[in-house]
């Protein structure tokens, strides 16, 4: 299977990295915008084919990872085959908008997140009828290589995309703050980041693998009269939950 990737910025390069772990790099056809030294170095590192034109007629699937405002203009100047399945990762673009440009192609809209680079993404997918059942199966199998697919009706796609797609940045801020506190208490910076990231990783893994809700898990950590409950109360005093709620609603606006 030949897989095209249009746009090689943060999301495009994350998808490329995840795909290169599962597919032959020479089957990945990439078109960036400017051919920068960074893009050339990335090409040498991964070994994908770097296209010079927006011609994806050889691609069975095309990921679109271009800036939202320019995407429809870019797609109008892009060549695909009749059978090419279009997967848009562009926030705000709908399957109908893609089929307006490519009326005969299957179109699927997703909001992936940066962990697709290590095949641990959370991929919000809009349930729509813009792909044939056979093409949808191809998409599902392809995306399953990049992480967990959460398929929801169009009415919920926005909020799933916000929590999954923007959420890594919120967690990154949390890890950064944890590390700062550790450094403030004398730990070296490198170890502080390692501790913060492995703690977040383990907490997420435990929640996912046991299916236990986060409040029950929190109760398992807060020993009576212990140190953790003092920290949890401290989070409440500083409005942590409200801050998270505000962040999600701002991003989802
Ligand atoms: N970053 C994330 O975590 C997520 C991003 N997305 C979506 O991914 C898309 C890209 O976001 P992100 O990667 O963060 O942004 P970036 O700015 O990092 O990447 C955008 C890329 O698109 C390229 N580009 C611009 N115009 C063209 C063109 N005409 N042809 C080909 N490539 C072009 C840019 O190239 P150049 O720099 O040379 O102009 C750049 O590499 C957005 O639509 C966003 O909604 C979705 C989910 C998560
Ligand atoms: O910030 C953005 O607009 C994109 C979409 C989701 C994550 N990043």
Automatic annotation (TrEMBL):
Q: Which residues form the signal peptide?
A: none
Q: What is this protein called?
A: Pyrroline-5-carboxylate reductase
Q: What is its main location?
A: cytoplasm
Q: Which Pfam families match?
A: F420_oxidored, P5CR_dimer
Q: Where is the Pyrroline-5-carboxylate reductase dimerisation domain?
A: 159-251
Enzyme Commission number, as recorded:
1.5.1.2
The keyword NADP is annotated on this UniProt entry: yes
Please list the reactions this protein catalyses: L-proline + NADP(+) = (S)-1-pyrroline-5-carboxylate + NADPH + 2 H(+); L-proline + NAD(+) = (S)-1-pyrroline-5-carboxylate + NADH + 2 H(+)
| Intracellular or extracellular location(s) | Cytoplasm
Q: In which pathway does it act?
A: Amino-acid biosynthesis; L-proline biosynthesis; L-proline from L-glutamate 5-semialdehyde: step 1/1
Q: Please describe what this protein does.
A: Catalyzes the reduction of 1-pyrroline-5-carboxylate (PCA) to L-proline.
User: Which superkingdom heads the taxonomic lineage of this protein's source?
Assistant: Bacteria
Q: Which family is it part of?
A: Belongs to the pyrroline-5-carboxylate reductase family.
